[in-house]
Amino acid sequence: MNTLVKVGRYHLVDRISFLILPLGITLFSFAINLLLFWLVVPEPEGHTGGVMSLFIYMAVIGALSATRSLPFGLTLGVSRRSYYLGTVALAAGLGVAFGLWVVLMQLIERLADGWGIGLHFFRVTLILDGPWYVSWLTSFVFLVLMTAYGLWAGLVFRRWSVLGLVTFIAAQVLVLVAATLVITWLDGWARVGEFFTGLGALGMTGIAAALAVVLLGAGFATIRRVTV
Amino acid sequence: MTAVLSTTGLTRRYQDQLALDDVSIDIEEGSITGLLGRNGAGKSTLMRIVTGQEFASAGTVRVFGESPVEHDAVLRRMVFVREDQVFPDFRVRHAVKAASWFYPRWDEELAQSLLRDFDLPDKRAIKKLSRGMRSALSIVIGLASRAELTLLDEPYAGLDAVARQLFYDRLLADYAEHPRTILVSTHLIDEVADLLEHIVMVDHGRVVLDAPADDVRGRATTVSGPARQVQAFVRHRRVLHERRIGARMAATVADRLDRDDQAQATAMNLKLEPLSLQQLMVATSLDAAGDHPGGNDAQKEDIA
Q1: Pairing, β B248-253 against β B239-245
Q2: CATH of the domain at B116
Q3: Which of A67, B63, B230, B274 is the most exposed place for a label (fewest CB within 10 A)?
Q4: Do residue B189 and residue B223 come from a single domain?
Q5: Is the ipTM of this complex over 0.85?
Q6: What's the predicted TM-score (pTM) here?
């Protein structure tokens, strides 16, 4: 058996964290949304974007792989490279599978007319609302992107511990604040909005894919320095 | 005999501290070597570098003739049992199952019988195991993997005496049937002394002793008796440690005593006792720390 496949199986031993929780949390969030909208019914249509909880949980999966599972993985005679590539391969596999699940749920959501109350839970306007194959691709890319982010953050924590992680997050906050200030000064919010609207789902997916590649590269550079 | 593991000038520096200082050792194929030393002497750091978990600041490591760093083919021929192993959110049987995928020479039957012997509940979550049970789990993996190079770092932390005996017995039995190279570090030196064929002793990151176990036994002797007689006897010998109680004195000498020396000691009414490995390690470490009047770093090489 290929070492990368073994690493993937190694992660999947913890079925709860890697399979049950991502779907479970999303379904739980869905149930709450459904309940609220049934009780309240504010407008003819409700856009919650609740499917995002699945994407956010992928960052948790990435972080778990980099922190809790890494030491025993390396003890079992796996190189950092194999561990990383196996983990990323698993993330890609989960991205394909969970992406397909999102698309299926979208299909049902559409057919059921938003679960009978016009609820948009699995569909997100502009980005996850097109043809099924585009939604599948977009879901896949964003799921991998989130895993890559969690993975890198976890590796930064393993390598440089709390101080490193705080610096890592502070740096991102600074970049975001700087970008916000610049856009505000230039009075550019309208143009930013137009830019993303103009990009469409595929354009945004492309940007996310590029970002994912950058994060995956950074994570790889970091794991090569990690000691356990 | 060929060296399965060899290091040359291996050094690891942590900020202002030298965890390993110019360590050059060769571990022969098919032997059990004891890696002895105090807490913080560098034993774990050495093993972590050998298994590629930690990086060296300088020097080289060769395992089966190749660098183990990021080298899957070399890494999977080694198993590392460490006392502070962090496990994922696994149950006992999950950890054993996962290990079985990664080791080409894994013996499932051995793993199952060890789990039974150690009374390990295989459905229990690892984080709910006691310290000793976690050690036992690591031992099960370390033995059942039958890795050509087996590194055991304080393998029985928290294990009770019965479990430790079980470990020694099973280790020896399996070693006899399936020879491999074993490097074991421990504080319970006297317990493992009989198993060891070779000794490497480290102190403050440096190798202070590297010799066959048989050479080490009887390498140092404690001479005790009336203080004046003892002083006369050890005057021209290398003294590791001495202790005086009233008119009596006990001195540990690092020279090998021949028949004449023994006859002389008997004539002088002195009692001679060979030092056990554990006592030797204590005496050597105290000596290195300059903790006694005769301490002299330059002479440390003499016993090494």
Answers
A1: antiparallel
A2: 3.40.50.300
A3: B274
A4: no
A5: yes
A6: 0.89
